From TrEMBL:
Lineage of the organism: Bacteria, Pseudomonadati, Pseudomonadota, Alphaproteobacteria, Caulobacterales
Region (Disordered) residue spans: 119-141
The keyword Hydrolase is assigned to this record: yes
Family, similarity comment: Belongs to the 'GDSL' lipolytic enzyme family.
Designated name of the protein: Rhamnogalacturonan acetylesterase
Pfam families hit by this protein: Lipase_GDSL_2
Organism: Caulobacter zeae
Length: 416
């Protein structure tokens, strides 16, 4: 059974005076009213009001119901006033799940609050004659997507997405950075999904989830494309970093980014850990989930070789928490079995690596269990309703319900 989030309105929190957060602090709370009788102090928004740069707000064109507000990069506390008779699921940016199945009775009103991280691709320019870049090198599929634009986008999904009002204000909270590949990333189109875009739903509005994972990435490419530079430029003391690489790092047919499990793969893991620790942030390693490949007895075949063991070894060596998603995914897939497990994967189960909404959601619950077991400082920020999850007893796939986003594509995923 899925869990519905309920949270309460929190006050305006101004961020520390860094280059990025100084811009946040300049922006006062913005309040929007979508009803026929706008409340005083709120900006009225007609149902056909499209986004334009001059006003900095409006609905995005196309199918679905996505509302955008121009903001600088940072963390934003969003509070929705949900109307009576609603059945609402909320996503942000590129389909990040923020709240699910918010259901209200006919005359009931409810406030739902969550924190969204926004970003652009710019980097602080290096000093004169110093090496470095001025921006993340985006791949073609990323350009123009909500994850990298100049606005905060909230999508109202579900059978009855009744939202009366919305408030956006700057927030100062710890960040949970996600670094990884296509199995972690915010997949922009239905029906594919990464566990990272499900994770925000499981946190209270006391942290933000900043997913910098991207399809096709390896630890080397993440460095070369200045993605790690971007993350580190925003990392503050008290932040967290969940790091999961391996699917692509192990590909010997990718010679520019291949790393060996017994040597260079471990070296890169150590370097990533060191960078976050130098900034007084908490690194957390995760082993890669298995691919869906069964033997004749219905047991998962390890296609990752020694890479999961290398992550566990580096974690033990450095005293870094490790979430063993390889072990949990094995239990999860075997619990479903060869017949039902394709329902957790993309492309109608033809894909044996990437997941759909159901698979990503259940893997995010595995990550939450790993946080509860090994990262108590972060576990304090989990939502009160996360409950417990046993990968040996997953939600039956046919009973899983996730309100879909409007954006849909059947194109092959990058790095597949």
């Amino acid at each position: 059974m899925q869990l519905a989030r309920r949270s309460v309105l929190a006050g305006l929190l101004l961020a520390p005076a860094t280059a990025a957060t100084a811009l946040e602090a300049q922006m006062t709370a913005r309040r929007f009213d979508f009803t026929a009788k706008p409340r005083e102090g709120f900006t009225p928004v007609a149902a056909d009001r499209l986004y334009d740069a001059a006003s900095g707000y409006g609905f995005e064109p196309g199918e679905g119901r996505s509302f955008s507000v121009a903001v600088p990069e940072g963390d934003w506390r969003v509070t929705l006033e949900v109307e009576g008779g609603a059945d609402l699921t909320v996503k942000a940016e590129s389909r990040r799940l923020m709240a699910e199945q918010i259901r209200t009775k006919a005359k009931e009103r409810r406030e739902v609050t969550f924190v969204v991280n926004t970003r652009d691709a710019s980097l602080p320019p290096p000093p004169k004659n110093a090496p470095g870049g001025t921006g993340v090198i985006l791949n073609p599929r990323e350009k123009g997507t909500p994850n990298w634009d100049d606005r905060l986008t909230v999508e109202f999904c579900g059978p009855a997405p009744k939202v009366a009002r919305m408030t956006v204000e700057a927030a100062s909270v710890p960040r949970v950075f996600l670094l990884g590949d296509s199995t972690v990333t915010d997949q922009p189109f239905e029906p594919a999904a990464g566990w990272g875009q499900m994770l925000p739903r499981f946190f209270a509005p006391t942290v933000s989830v900043a997913s910098h994972a991207e399809s096709g990435e390896t630890m080397k490419s993440f460095l070369m494309e200045h993605r790690l530079d971007k993350v580190l430029s925003q990392t503050r003391a008290g932040d967290f970093a969940l790091i999961q690489f391996g699917h692509n790092d192990q590909k010997e047919n990718w010679p520019q980014t291949y790393v060996a499990a017994d040597s260079t793969y471990r070296d890169y893991l150590r370097a990533y850990v060191g960078e976050f620790r130098r900034r007084k942030a908490t690194p957390v390693l995760a082993t890669s989930m298995h691919r869906r490949r069964f033997d004749g007895e219905g047991r998962i075949i390890n296609t990752h070789g020694d890479y999961p063991a290398a992550v566990l070894a580096v974690g033990a060596e450095l005293g870094v928490p490790v979430i063993d998603l390889a072990a949990m995914s094995k239990v999860f897939y075997e619990a479903l079995g060869p017949a039902q497990s394709p329902k957790a994967f993309a492309d109608g189960g033809k894909d044996i690596t990437h997941h759909d909404n159901y698979g990503a959601y259940e893997l995010a619950r595995c990550i939450v269990e790993g946080i509860k077991a090994g990262v108590p400082e972060l576990a304090r920020h989990l939502a009160a309703d996360v409950g417990s999850f046993d990968p040996a007893r997953p939600t039956p796939p046919d009973s899983f319900v996730m309100a879909p986003s409007a954006a849909r594509s059947n194109a092959a995923l990058r790095g597949n």
